[in-house]
Amino acid sequence: MDGAIEKFQVQSVVADGLTEPQRRAVTHGDGPLLVLAGPGSGKTRVITRRIASLIARGVPAWSILALTFTNTAAREMADRVESLVPIDTPGRRGLTVSTFHSWCARLLRQFGPTSEAARHVTGALEGGFTILDAADAKASVKRALKAAELDPKHFTPAWAMGYIGEQKNVLRTATQCLDEAQDFASRTAARVYVEYEQILGRANALDFDDLLLRSAFMLLRDEAVRGAVQGRFRHLLVDEYQDTNHAQFVIARVVAQGSGNICVVGDPDQAIYGWRGADISNILEFEEAWPGAAIVALGDNFRSVEPIVACADALIRHNSERRERPLSSMVGPGDPVRRIACADDRHEARVVVQAVLDARAGGTPLREMAVLYRMNALSRAMEEECLRREVPYVVARGTAFYERAEVRSALSYLRVLANPADDLALQRAAQNPNRGIGDSGFAKLQAHAAMHGTCVRAVLARARAAGVAARTAKACEAFASELDALSLQLASDGWEEDGSCRLGRFVMDLIDRSGLRSFVMKESADDEEAEERSANLTEVANAAAETPMPADPEPAAPTPDRTLMGALRAYLERVALVADADMVDPERGALTLMSLHAAKGLEFDVVAIIGVEQGILPHERSLADPSQMEEERRLLYVGITRARRQLFITSAGLRTRNGIRLPTIPSSFDHELPEHALRREGSTGSFAGYGRAGDEGPGAEVGWERGRPRLAGRRVEAVDGTDEAGGSESVRAGSVVRHFQFGMGRVEAVFSEGGRTKARVAFRSSGVKTLVLDFVRLDVVS
DNA sequence: TACTTCAATGTTTTT
DNA sequence: CATTGAAGTA
Q1: Which nucleotide is nearest to A438 (CA to C1')?
Q2: Which of A96, A108, A615, A727 has the fewest CB atoms nearer than 10 Å to its CB?
Q3: Distance, Å, A474 CA → B1 C1'
């Protein structure tokens, strides 16, 4: 085959149908590149085509690193690159597309244990480190506050977490903070930070911010790590660059310093993470950090109809900290944006769900619609109404499933197996089910362990020496040998020859044999709850079974760990780093409910933004600060620009908050929307619709079951079992199916094994997997 | 040690 | 309202 012709063909596919500025960004050669991409301007298109173009140019895929903020974005990017580059293109394999956090976690697993720069205050970072979720980080902060002996009235966990997060985001360590503290207040804060770091260090645990901070330190200070990373990655691409914080800025800078090839894509008008340390000057001052950078601005909007773009544009012009950039719709005219003032929140829900049903009747599938809100609490009323009208919906809160008590318990066993120093997990595992090891007994063990400079796990088998009651000691010893037995298995192979992961079986056995399942079921209030919680446990095992086998290493990549322990670590890492937005499944036949933040980067035909009221959007806590108000405005801007064809902006005259209904005040952003693009319905004055608030009548009871919402978790079923995408009943050999994580695949076989119906599916990008049909969601495409 | 009950208390957004 | 913590009881 003629290489030149092949390359030419790839190039033409890559550049096909692009606008002039898009083409410039895609074909830009070496050197720094900043792409300022307005909403709907083809940002993802540009990144994916640019990667494809690099590969076509002869840059090996394994030397390209693309960093995103969510796993969904990463996967979509990888899929799209793959479909652009012909399968037989040399050097096509091994592309790294990852979130900042997971890429850093992997870097730390590889280099952390031997790198001085990654050390904890208490000692070396070990490879099996735990990634603490928000709840565990909070628990650790509480312990740190207690250890620092501060008045809990004045020094709250939220305050401490805020302080620690801020410091970590700008790469300041605990000791540095303590050394540089000038006054009493900052010394107090620094003391808490130091205590917190010691707690994490003893547990061999890292929080989310640590993943970035320690990676940044390794890259800055450890020549071996920096050399390895710079040697391997010759092209860096960063998506959503406007939302990077200082740590991420440093990571990107050091990685790209080796090659000078850095391409960042973002939009200052869509910066919505200032509160978590995102520094907008990273993108505004890109040219200063990278002199000679090429800049491409993409302003044409190919997503939304004119009234929607007009709304977005008029709104964002009210921000003063902004470089003016025009935004115009290339799609053409469309329906005006409907600004609906409702009587109260239930009325609002009825109006929105009715609009959804109308749109569905008009041919728009539910998966192309979304309801967006400023606070997760606003999803409640919507969920009730969806249940009542039998509209299948998905609440995109990725962490919700992992916050459930039984799921946390199951994961605690896994965590302590992966990382014996994880006392938090050990305690939770030890007490679920109850084994006669209580809080006081565990505290004694902890004190004893601390005295010997070790973790509880290490002294568990000799609990008697810790001075606990004889009965407790016996329980500890039994539990210790239970864990020992499980640990032994972890050295075995992690995957079967067909690529299926043995961790699923391992977790299933663990859940049953530890007594966790029966305990959780016995604890439940009724059969239905028992059933649901048991199913959640099974889902943990099932998700573990889906851990993909690591691919063969590309040149300059580390050798993957294919033991069961390796699978366990990979699974725990994946679980720890899911984003809310990752739970959006575009192939499901359901309406998506999610926060405005989680909606960043997504698009839908029909969008409703609810709760556009003063105090909600803009949020109360932002009202006093002009620059926070600008961020609130950007948030609404992001929401508006998610919509392709139809946009609803709603408010309620009365809203129930904390159990009390109160009249609302219209959002100050309301007057900033252009009347010519709007259709106003209802009255927008305060106290609007007072008289109509209670007109639901007696038949308006909602579909709660015993006052508890039917879980807003990972596997929200369509309420009536219907699934527009086709349902799972017709999975047979030969079907083309889609999995929320693995993407498209072809069913090779359906068979029965161990009393379960399973399917072997060959996925296009993630290989052959065996899936249990009862638990896995597979949408049949054909 | 484990479970129940009651009072207080705080509330955005998320990797 | 819903979660959390403390106090009391079996």
Answers
A1: B1
A2: A727
A3: 15
Nucleic strand C contacts from chain A, 701-740, CB < 7 Å:
707
Q: Give Cβ neighbours of residue A440 (< 8 Å, ≥ 6 apart).
A: none
pLDDT averaged per 10 residues, chain A (length 782): 49 77 94 96 93 92 94 89 85 91 95 93 90 89 85 82 93 94 88 93 94 97 96 96 96 96 96 93 94 94 96 95 86 95 93 96 94 93 91 84 88 95 92 86 87 91 86 90 94 92 95 90 78 88 92 79 95 88 74 93 95 93 91 96 97 87 91 95 52 34 27 32 36 65 65 56 60 58 61
The string of DSSP codes covering A65-87 is EEEESSHHHHHHHHHHHHHHS-T
pLDDT score at A366 = 94
The Cα–Cα gap between A540 and A432 comes to 16
Catalytic residue among A23, A43, A232, A600: A43
CA A535, CA A548: separation in Å to the nearest integer? 22
Alpha-carbon distance A610 to A594, whole Å?
11
b/e per residue A211-222 (b: at least 16 CB within 10 A):
bbbbbbbbbbeb
Angle at A154 between CA A152 and CA A155, to 5 degrees: 65
Q: 10 Å Cβ neighbour count for A8?
A: 12
Element at A606 (helix H, strand E): strand A604-609
Cα radius of gyration (chain A):
27
Tokens representing A462 are 């000799």
Active site residue A240: yes
Q: In what order do the strands lie in the sheet with A778-780?
A: A767-772, A756-763, A743-753, A736-739, A778-780
| Interatomic separation, CA of residue A646 and C1' of nucleotide B1, rounded (Å) | 59
Spatial distance between the Cα atoms of A134 and A198, rounded to a whole number of angstroms: 18
Flag residues 365-424 of A with CB < 7 Å from strand C: none
In sequence order, which residues have a C-beta less than 8 Å from that of residue A190 and are 6 or more positions away?
A174, A177, A178, A181
Number of C-beta neighbours around residue A513 at 10 A: 12
Q: Look at residue A467 in the predicted model and tell me its pLDDT.
A: 83
Active-site pick, A642, A645, A655, A769: A642
Give the residue from A554, A544, A590, A609 showing the smallest Cα distance to A776.
Answer: A544
Spatial CA neighbour of A101 closest among A572, A576, A418, A557: A576
Tokens representing A262 are 């850095």
Which listed residue (A22, A68, A242, A270) is catalytic? A270
What is the pTM for the complete model shown? 0.85
Calculate the angstrom distance between C1' of C4 and CA of A65: 44
Side-chain half-sphere of A395: how many Cα atoms within 13 Å?
A: 24
DSSP codes joined into one string, A254-312? HHHHTT--EEEEE-GGG---GGGTB-THHHHTHHHHSTT-EEEEE-EESSS-HHHHHHH
Give the containing element (helix H, strand E) for A13: helix A3-15
A135: number of Cβ within 10 Å: 13
pLDDT of residue A712: 30
Q: Which nucleotide is nearest to A708 (CA to C1')?
A: C2
Helix, strand, coil percentages (3-state) for chain A, rounded to 5, are 50, 15, 35
A319 CA, C7 C1': separation in Å?
53
* Protein residues in reach of strand B (CB < 7 A): A 69-70, 99-101, 134, 156, 158, 208-209, 275-276, 374-377, 397-399, 431, 434-441, 468-469, 472, 577-582, 594-595, 597-598, 619, 621-622, 658
Strand partners, A751: A758
- In contact, A231 and A206? CB cutoff 8 Å: no
Question: Could you tell me the two tokens for A605?
Answer: 């035909």
* CA→C1' distance for A661 and C1 (Å): 12
Which nucleotide minimizes the distance between its C1' and the CA of A138? C4
